[in-house]
Amino acid sequence: MADGADIIDFSSNINPLGPPAGLKEVLIKSYDELISYPDIKYRELRENISAYLGCHSDEVMTGNGALEIINNVSLLFKRVVVFTPCFIEYIKRPEILGREVVRLRLDNDFKIDLGELNKALKEGDLLILGNPNNPTAKRIPEDMLYKIQSITKERNAFLLLDEAFYEFCPFDYDSIKLFHNAQNVCIIRAATKFFALPGIRLGYAYAKGDFVKRYNEIESPWSVNSFANAAARNIFKDVRYIENTREYIKKEREFLLTELSGIDYLKVFDSQVNFILIKLLKYDEDILFDKFLKNGILIRKASSFEGLDKSYIRIAVKDHDSNKRIVNCFKECV
Amino acid sequence: MADGADIIDFSSNINPLGPPAGLKEVLIKSYDELISYPDIKYRELRENISAYLGCHSDEVMTGNGALEIINNVSLLFKRVVVFTPCFIEYIKRPEILGREVVRLRLDNDFKIDLGELNKALKEGDLLILGNPNNPTAKRIPEDMLYKIQSITKERNAFLLLDEAFYEFCPFDYDSIKLFHNAQNVCIIRAATKFFALPGIRLGYAYAKGDFVKRYNEIESPWSVNSFANAAARNIFKDVRYIENTREYIKKEREFLLTELSGIDYLKVFDSQVNFILIKLLKYDEDILFDKFLKNGILIRKASSFEGLDKSYIRIAVKDHDSNKRIVNCFKECV
């Protein structure tokens, strides 16, 4: 068995290229900012984020990771509607806050059933959708997203799109542009996954100014730390890093999808992002988890996602050598 | 009028000596930890905190600053009782979470009236007290604190002590030792004020294991960033820095209390901490704020604290030169 240091982590969906070069120097330079409270209005941070998102700084919300934004937005509504399987915190955070959570099921292809949505969604509800969705790795097609937003609008409900993985996807549309006139949409993005910075805790979101005002009233003061604030001076401007990552992930995703599709005991779902959901036609997640771990590879068991059972696993798209190793492991370890 | 860079900030109660030397190197060394999620159980962090607090690591709670702990603990109770004037977030965070907040008044000497507490506190309530209290600068005497805890215990209520300023005070007692057998007490401390790190967002608290378990169930995952985690390797071990700060603040606090007590339009309340509450016997906070700002000094208007009016201001204990400057300003600017 491989020891801890040797283990390749396919369970965590982080950019395998690491953070942008130059970030370290920017953070070191910001050291003295630690001794002041973060600007309670995050003026500089909002400017940097709005320049990246292509919106006005009054349309930017911030949080201690995407998770705090999910938490705070949930506080503003009484009832939450989700489609399972989804990121577990769409259910857990609202429930902890005492909100009712209505679970609908994605269809057999992990698509949203508009009929189900139409039946379940009520006035004043918050609909939370991952786009792309974790763990299903599916981005909602533009026309479908448009229909979903229309339904939420008709019902006087609100749509929260969690796009923490946005930059990994093909840019067929930008939901911030798509909904730049919509009053009932909030779109979360984050530094965590794409910029490989889960430790820095920088989440941000787009919404129209009136909603941002409501959000700011309930946000905990100083929740974004000074290093996260400083990082935003650097990461969004590194166009080459952003392009390189997108190309790299696309190539490696295609490599994994092609190689894994040829393995007879796997049903590999298509992916538009940096992770892949797999159904095991033989064995179960526990057997695979143990076999892979013995070979130095950590995979994600997927039965912890409501709506999936032990026949599912999720793997990240990593660097080419690691990806070759996991392909070999699928072929030879089991 | 002084320009922005020249202004001495007496409104923010941060250790004037700055963070411990050596911290910068520890943070730089931790840079690569940014690319991993913080340990969801904060094992290393809890060990470092528990060694400092003198408790077991299972008795340590963590948060994105003391504020997140106040927030999370409030979530665990239906009704909150506070004594005003107090830190505004003891009222604001529970209300945002939909909790009922009962406000009692401190007496004319800003002491807790046990009779009032006895009348108001009900089964299952959360009592939040600052110790020392902001803005009144008073630490609760040991015998009084003991009585308060007895009352909360009798009522099956819970006591949350916010001791974010603990290290600045004379160590006449340590409430963690005092209540090491109490099941209904949680004691917050924080890196923010004493270690001069408001930008790093490191809050922590002590409670018995059963309560810590309840807290962990509702805590947002990864809310403490990787630099805050790394800082805890350094700051708590710097015994000389801790002693120097305590002596420095004691001397400067006494200097300010003595000098200001001789000024006829001020009623200066005694302080055991690194800030001082002052009642203006002439003028009001707006007049003083403007006059002082014109002389390069920022003071804290205190009417934003429920229970105080425009005749109160709060000032921090800062470095000796700054303290001399504010004393002169009280004597000459007004």
Topology:
The structure is a homodimer of 334-residue chains.
Chain A lengths: L7 E2 L13 H7 L13 H11 L6 E4 L2 H10 L3 E6 L4 H8 L3 E6 L8 H7 L5 E5 L11 H13 L3 E5 L12 H4 L6 E6 L12 E5 L1 H10 L7 H6 L7 H23 L4 E3 L6 E6 L4 H10 L2 E2 L1 E2 L10 E5 L3 H13 L2
Parallel strand pairs in A: 1-11, 3-4, 3-5, 5-6, 6-7
Antiparallel strand pairs in A: 2-8, 7-8, 9-10, 10-13, 12-13
EC number (chains A, B): 4.1.1.81
Enzyme class (chains A, B): lyase
Keywords (chains A, B): Lyase, Pyridoxal phosphate
Structural overview:
The structure is a homodimer of 334-residue chains. The first copy, chain A, has twelve helices and 13 strands. Chain A is α/β, with parallel strands linked by helices and 334 residues long. Chain A has two domains: 4-17 and 239-332, Aspartate Aminotransferase, domain 1; 35-237, 3-Layer(aba) Sandwich (Aspartate Aminotransferase, domain 2), CATH 3.40.640.10. In chain A, the strands form three sheets. Chain A has a seven-stranded mixed sheet, with helices on both faces. Chain A has a four-stranded antiparallel sheet with strand order 9-10-13-12, covered by helices on one side. In chain A, helix 7 links the parallel strand 6 and strand 7. Chain A is globular. The A-B interface holds A 12, 14, 18-19, 24, 27-28, 31, 33-38, 64-65, 67-68, 71, 75, 89, 93, 96-98, 196-201, 218, 220-223, 225-229 and B 12, 14, 18-19, 24, 27-28, 31, 33-38, 64-65, 67-68, 71, 75, 89, 93, 96-98, 196-201, 218, 220-223, 225-229. Chains A, B: Keywords: Lyase, Pyridoxal phosphate. Chains A, B: Its cofactor is pyridoxal 5'-phosphate. Chains A, B: Its EC number is 4.1.1.81. Chains A, B: It comes from Oxobacter pfennigii.
